[in-house]
Specification:
242 residues, mainly beta, hypothetical protein yedk fold, seven-stranded mixed sheet, 4 helices
């Protein structure tokens, strides 16, 4: 699964430039570097409209347009790539509202519940990771305000993640992102076979694991110290496949 992740870029405009995306100046003030993004938090999605990439704010946890409220958001942070196209909760978004979620790492944990040891999975060169995602917009029946929400698609873990968890977020190759987020005017033109082919585990050299401070275990902690290397009393050798 992917329940917590990071996006530590300092400057929003530079992030948008790195993604080749346009944005509304009004949203710039919403941005800040994040070191421990959790379900229902505000984050960002990359979508395509009229062949132009757009970077937009959205909340982590998909809420269907027909939902009576947003209480189910935390239960729909992830969608299994193997079944998302057919599940009622994700089917329409898979067909028409695909997005990418910019991040620079995600967390998984090893050890017992009483002594959870967090690992931060990130690109070896510090580059951006782009998770495959789905988004929906939900309208509050009381205020009539719209909220954009998203879920991250997951797939089988690669050899780097597998010793800790059997699932991982789908990480899109940078040169295939547009293939995922492109939305043709006619839905019948969507090549679902090609889209499904993108939803596979990342290559083993795409990410590395770093054991980080247990500070990240608490969602209230969201600062650079979360990514500090584990201290000697916490550190242990990263699990490996036998």
């Amino acid at each position: 699964m992917c329940g917590r992740f990071t996006l530590t870029r300092k400057d929003f405009r530079q992030l948008a430039a790195e993604l080749g995306a346009e944005f509304d100046d009004a949203v710039v003030a919403l941005y800040r570097p994040r070191y421990n993004i959790a379900p229902t938090d505000q984050h960002w999605i990359l979508r395509m409209k009229q062949e132009q990439r757009q970077l937009l704010p959205a909340k982590f946890g998909l809420v269907n347009s027909w939902a009576p409220d947003m209480k189910g958001a935390a239960r729909q942070i992830n969608a299994k790539s193997e079944t998302a196209r057919t599940r009622p909760a994700f089917r329409e978004a898979f067909e028409s509202r695909r997005c990418a979620i910019p991040a620079d790492g995600f967390f998984e944990w090893a050890g017992t519940k009483e002594a959870r040891r967090p690992f931060w999975y990130h690109a070896p060169d510090g580059g951006l990771l782009l998770f495959a995602g789905l988004y929906e917009s939900w309208r509050d029946p009381t205020t009539e305000a719209w909220t954009r929400t998203f879920a991250i698609l997951t797939t089988d873990a690669n050899d780097v993640v597998a010793p800790v968890h059997n699932r991982m977020p789908v990480i899109l190759p940078h040169d295939r992102v547009d293939d995922w987020i492109f939305r043709p005017a006619d839905k019948s033109q969507v090549d679902f076979t090609a889209l499904q082919d993108l939803l596979r585990p990342a290559s083993n050299d795409a990410i590395v694991a770093t054991e980080v401070s247990r500070r990240v275990n608490a969602v209230a902690n969201d600062d650079e110290a979360c990514l500090s290397p584990a201290v000697d009393s916490e550190a242990f050798e990263a699990p490996r496949l036998l």
